[in-house]
Design brief:
The protein is α/β, with parallel strands linked by helices. α4 packs across α10, α5 packs parallel to α6 and α7 runs parallel beside α8. 47% of the residues are buried.
Length: 344
């Protein structure tokens, strides 16, 4: 089969012919119908410091997928050939302390597709049955694939069970997950969604997803805009999705007292933070977001999409054959794409 492989410790991926795998005990073999490129995949492609310290070539990349079950391994129950599935990419052990108390998404022994295990940028892929999520047959495979990052946005929006109706929300970072969050927030009844980025192309995608106020932080003062748009009160909720220390600082300054913060962005370096004034005196509630609740977030994700409460399709901007993967990665590096679909 064809697969995109990180074959050696250097920039790029290689389209290679590799052996089609067979499912073992508790596993499914899926025919990949669509995959989507994540920021993590871009890091692996570029071979940045994180990737070079984590990835051990050779490795098939990719972790977001919509696929059709073609073979069931020994002992698998509850699934049938022909079903369309998405995949929870955190492969959990079911044995550690965190798994046993219901925190499978932060399993102490977690392995991730396309990072620690062979991924899904291929014609076929192996996934543990415990990680498979069934979808309606009529769902487009590319929508099945983006449910994993969409779930990150769902988790970020709803963590803490705050009242979102009539709330003012600030989102920093208009990448695909930030854009998904805009649609989810509007579906949850948010009064005003303010989103910031330094890329006008992505800000326009956020507008298509329902963002009310677009802020290019390279030429506008974010805190001033938020205060103006909230009658001086500040944001009720702040979602940090940029992985930017400047965005985090501005967001905390723009947050109202007793507001809530969800931090999903990954920061390349330690961040200097005014904890006293930004968090303690502000009585802020802060949540670090790692993945999705397994499978509570998936249930909420499915409801939002299947009931047409949120249409994620505007974030999908390009579709390529896997043979043309380099064009897709180039667009992402240039900041001229939202979510890119690769089809084997």
């Amino acid at each position: 089969m064809k697969a995109l492989v990180k074959s050696s410790p250097k920039r790029g991926l290689e389209l290679m012919d590799v052996e089609t795998p067979s499912p073992g005990k508790g596993e499914l073999l899926i025919k990949v119908k669509a995959t989507t490129i994540c920021g993590t995949d871009l890091h692996i492609f570029e071979w940045n410091d994180w990737a070079s310290g984590r990835i051990k070539p050779p490795l098939i990349a990719g972790h977001e997928v919509g696929g059709e079950i073609v073979e069931l391994g020994e002992g698998v129950q509850g699934f049938e050939k022909g079903e369309l599935i998405s995949v929870e990419t955190h492969v959990y052990c079911n044995e550690c302390f965190q798994c046993r108390i219901g925190n499978k998404h932060i399993c102490e022994n977690v392995k991730i597709f396309g990072v620690d295990l062979n991924g899904v940028f291929a014609e076929y892929a192996i996934v543990p049955a415990q990680n498979a999520w069934k979808n309606p047959k009529q769902m487009k495979p590319e929508i099945a694939s983006i449910q994993e990052p969409f779930g990150n946005a769902v988790h970020s929006v709803f963590v803490g069970n705050d009242q979102l109706e009539d709330s003012n929300v600030l989102v920093t970072g208009a990448g695909p997950i930030g854009c998904f969050a805009c649609g989810i927030l509007k579906a949850a009844g948010a009064k005003k969604v303010i989103i910031s980025d330094i890329n006008d192309y992505r800000l326009e995608l956020a507008a298509k997803m329902g963002a009310d106020v677009l802020v290019n932080a390279s030429n506008e003062k974010l805190v001033d805009v938020v205060k103006r748009e909230t009658a001086g009160r500040g944001a009720d909720v702040f979602l940090e999705m940029a992985g930017s220390s400047a965005a985090l600082s501005d967001g905390l300054n723009a947050l109202r007292p007793a507001g809530r913060v969800s931090i999903l962005g990954i920061f390349a370096k330690p961040v200097p933070l005014d904890v006293t004034n930004g968090l303690v005196f502000k009585y802020a509630k802060v949540f670090g977001i790692n993945g999705r609740l397994i499978f509570g977030t998936w249930k909420k994700t499915s409801e939002l999409i299947e009931k047409k409460l949120v249409d994620p399709s505007p974030v999908i901007t390009h579709r390529f054959s896997m043979d043309d993967f380099e064009e897709g990665f180039s667009l992402l590096e240039e900041g001229r794409a939202g979510k890119i679909v690769l089809v084997p």
